[in-house]
Design brief:
The protein is an alpha+beta fold. The protein is built from eight helices and nine strands. A seven-stranded mixed beta sheet has the order 4-5-6-7-8-3-9, with helices on both faces. It has a two-stranded antiparallel sheet with strand order 1-2.
Length: 217
């Protein structure tokens, strides 16, 4: 049975614990995924290594939100060294662009002058943020984007940052695996929270967030 991947379908899937993936970049088939073990980053247990904290402050990157959503998705979908295939196909690109226009999908972008050098995108529903993909064209740029994302989620009162799967890369930031049952419980609690994704932070708020981490982290 053929169906069109719509914003409504995506939102319904996320709120029931599912997320879509393409079979490959050039294949239009969509697979709905419901992992037995789910990766999450506990927002009250985010780990910010000291070296990265220095990088965030000194990298000289401009961080913006939702100014180049389509370009971020295209960059995440592009083949790169060590990964020739990607699950982000044309149907997903189109559907998430529509979800972005509807106000539910967001990008956090790192810029070096006029060049987009890293970023990430995901979906925000109530007090849950579902991270989808990230990319980097400059060392640590995607990590800087992640720190800015977490700072925004923390300030806005989000309860859940879903990373889909646990990777060694994400584990360095405190990501853990939870069972499907535990994930559903956390998701239910997060969906009961009223939260609005903040495109900007008040002056000084991000620096205060960085200062909240101990020097031993």
């Amino acid at each position: 049975m053929e169906y069109r991947l719509t914003p409504e379908l995506l939102l319904r899937a996320y709120t029931t614990g599912l997320f879509p993936m393409g079979e490959s970049r050039g294949d239009s088939d969509i697979v709905w995924v419901d992992p037995e073990w789910r990766g999450i980053v506990p927002l009250d247990g985010f780990h910010l290594p000291r070296r990265l904290r220095r990088t965030v402050r000194r990298a000289g990157l401009a961080v913006r939100v939702d100014t180049a959503f389509g370009r971020v998705m295209q960059s995440c979908a592009a083949p790169r060294r060590g990964r020739r295939e990607t699950w982000i196909n044309d149907d997903i690109l189109r559907a998430y662009a529509e979800l972005h226009r509807a106000g539910f999908a967001h990008s956090v972008e790192c810029w070096r002058g006029d060049a987009l050098v890293g970023g990430l995108y995901g979906v925000a529903i109530a007090g849950a943020f579902f991270g989808e993909s990230m990319f980097t064209l400059e060392t640590d740029a995607s990590k800087v984007a992640l720190v800015h994302l977490v700072a925004r989620l923390d300030r806005a009162g989000y309860r859940l940052l879903d990373t889909q799967f646990l990777t060694d890369h994400l584990a360095r930031f405190g990501a853990v695996e939870v069972t499907r049952r535990e994930y559903r419980r956390l998701l239910h609690e997060a969906l009961a929270v009223e939260a609005e994704f903040p495109r900007t932070l008040p002056e000084g708020a991000f620096e205060l967030y960085l200062q909240s981490f101990t020097q031993t982290s």
